[in-house]
Amino acid sequence: MTALFVVIFMEQWKKGKQYQSALIGVVLPAAVIGLLVVYSLKDISFVSGSHGLPEMLAVGFVVLLHAWRGSMLLSIGGGTLLYMGLVQLVF
């Protein structure tokens, strides 16, 4: 899947002079995920409450799920469901 993306990206890069759309397609997903991680973890308090345990478990689950399946949507959805389950039912 990644190789196919690289081939499509390179073909679009070679064909035209409009490189902005190809560059946005490569940079934007990583920027959105980085922004999501920073926003999600900015208010964690390690000295009170659950000490950030649900957040760290959810982040670890997202990393493992993404390494296993490679699907960004599945990883984000699975991590969200795990985090909400932990916060509502366990902590």
What proportion of the residues form beta strands (DSSP E)?
A: under 5%
Overall pLDDT = 80
Shape: elongated
Percent of residues in helices comes to over 70%
Order of helices and strands: HHHH
From the helix content, strand content and strand pairing, which structural class follows? mainly alpha
Would you kindly provide a brief summary of this structure?
The chain is an all-alpha fold. Helices cover 79% and strands 0% of the residues. It has 2 domains: 42 residues, no CATH class; 47 residues.
Write up this protein:
This protein has 91 residues and is mainly alpha-helical. It has two domains: 1-42, no CATH class; 45-91. Helix content is 79%, strand content 0%. The chain contains four helices and no strands. α3 (53-69) packs antiparallel against α4 (72-90). The radius of gyration is 18 Å and the shape is elongated. It starts with a helix and ends with a helix.
Features:
single chain; 91 residues; mainly alpha; 2 domains; elongated; transmembrane helix; membrane; Brnchd-chn_aa_trnsp_AzlD; transmembrane
Secondary structure layout:
Elements: H1 2-15, H2 20-41, H3 53-69, H4 72-90
Helix pairs in contact: 3-4
